[in-house]
């Protein structure tokens, strides 16, 4: 009888050790998966990634084109470039000095085709059917960025990652930064809209979220950078033309004040251009300031 009790105890002890080992292993794998965004200080990466050619190449992620430009020198950082609403991905390069100056400084450029995206978390029943083909902000973060990290070693945590966007792409900068914790070291958002309820008449927001009067809860608390300002952990440069006829400069001013209120330790710069409008002449005038801001981080 004593032998049986001893044997029974040994079996229970062995089962305990096996259960503990399995739990620890699963916990470790889970933590490893979360490191794609959460950890900003990783050890030196020894993973072998697919190589990219120097210059411009276009890859597809879920059939969505993404341009990548690799400089012919040491890579100084990765720069995610977000276009405005219904702007093609190449307009930043074609109509400003951003790409020329970025390449000269050693930045690798990532330029996704976002179409009529408002960088939303998802599609809604209120979303126009012909807009549902546009990528969401969730696709940008959970699919495109993760694909680039795993396959090419681009936008890895702890590296010199930056993002810049204009118009709706400025809104995309804020939302993407919020959704990726500290993946990016700094962001530049130009002429963006950050508080949906300040523009209840806006045709783009109405086409995506439905009318403000009928969908106030969505407009107020979902995909609203102003509402989620306390979650932002990325230093931000906000630029806007004072007389912007498309997106009122009040959007950047109120977002800046909100960030100062709820996120006082975060470095945020506000620049309102007295002559700036909602055009590439203004956006090009902010390129040098953008790189100066990035170089601080």
Keywords:
Rossmann fold, globular, 2 domains, eight-stranded mixed β-sheet, 297 residues, alpha/beta
Describe this structure in words.
- This protein has 297 residues and is α/β, with parallel strands linked by helices.
- The protein has 2 domains: 1-30; 55-294, Alpha/Beta hydrolase fold, catalytic domain (Rossmann fold), CATH 3.40.50.
- The chain contains 10 helices and 8 strands.
- It has helices spanning 2-34, 91-95, 98-104, 137-152, 168-179, 203-209, 216-221, 250-262, 280-285, 287-294, and strands at 55-61, 64-70, 77-82, 107-112, 161-166, 186-190, 236-241, 268-273.
- It has an 8-stranded mixed beta sheet with strand order 1-2-4-3-5-6-7-8, sandwiched between helices.
- Helix 8 links the parallel strand 7 (236-241) and strand 8.
- Helix 4 (137-152) packs across helix 5.
- The longest helix has 33 residues, at 2-34.
- It is globular.
| Named CATH architecture of the largest domain | 3-Layer(aba) Sandwich
| Largest sheet, strands/sense/barrel | 8 strands, mixed
CATH topology of the largest domain: Rossmann fold
Which class best fits the helix and strand makeup? alpha/beta
Q: Compute the number of helices.
A: 10
Instruction: State the helical fraction.
Output: 25-40%
Q: Roughly how many Å is the radius of gyration?
A: 23 Å
